[in-house]
What we know:
Blueprint: H1 2-24, H2 34-57, H3 67-91
Helix pairs in contact: 1-2, 1-3, 2-3
Amino acid sequence: MENWIGIGVWIVLGAVVGLVMKAMVKVPSTQPGHTTILVVLGCFAGVVGGMLGVGILEFTEPRSMSAGGMIGALFLSVLLTWTYRWGSKTVV
């Protein structure tokens, strides 16, 4: 049960990072679909990053609520949402 709770925390962490990234990186002409895309992208990146973090940093005792999982989820969700937000800023 603890692993499912950890995966839920990764999803929520990714969604929060997506919303924070929307607030931090300002785009002059915002289009209406970016909030949904950023939240979904942050959730996806949080889950993938959490799995990678657990696999790399917590190899001996894999648990999703470990520090490795949280660090991986945070790092990858920040990286992917910032890349999307930065890329959409330069294209527009």
